[in-house]
Amino acid sequence: MSKLKTLSYQRWAGIWTVVILIFCTAKMPDTQGSGFFFIGFDKLVHLGFFFVLSILLFYGKIKSQSSYSFRVMTIFKIVALTFFIGGAIEIIQLELFPYRSAEWWDLGADMMGVMMAVFSYVLLHRSNYNETTMSREIRKNNEAALDAVDAEKK
């Protein structure tokens, strides 16, 4: 499969990365006392942004594969890529946008979102594996039963 074709499966992740970059570098209005925002709200936003980004990266990877096979290297690559993106956003905020604060806790929240997505990927893969295994066993049992019926008829 060509690299361009592989990258086409990641277009939604690329678009979402741009959305994250825009929101993380935009000047935000003062929200103190608004009642809607609470202490740590920005950490929740970071967690959500990176959970969705990781899910989109996993989705693109799964779509680019011919089978839904579990790969540890896929997890490693996505964790490394999202760590790099989260770290780069914090450095960009620190160096280029004086109205934004760079906090390493934000990177921690990013990685929590990524770990939630990894957990989801592993859990869904395990569920898919169990369904495939069960289907195979049911099919084998049905074939054995049909063979027994055919043997009785003869």
Q: What attributes does this structure have?
A:
154 residues; mainly alpha
Walk me through the structure:
The protein is mainly alpha-helical. It has 5 helices and no strands. Helix 2 (11-25) runs antiparallel to helix 3 (41-64), helix 3 (41-64) crosses helix 4 (72-96) and helix 4 runs antiparallel to helix 5.
Describe, in short, the structure shown.
With 154 residues, the protein is mainly alpha-helical. 78% of the residues lie in helices and 0% in strands.
Radius of gyration, CA atoms, in whole angstroms: 23 Å
Strand elements, count = 0
Biggest beta sheet summary: none
Strand content: under 5%
Helix proportion of residues, in percent? Answer: over 70%
Order of helices and strands: HHHHH
List low-confidence stretches.
Answer: none
Q: What is the tally of helical segments?
A: 5
Present the secondary structure layout.
Layout: H1 3-8, H2 11-25, H3 41-64, H4 72-96, H5 104-153
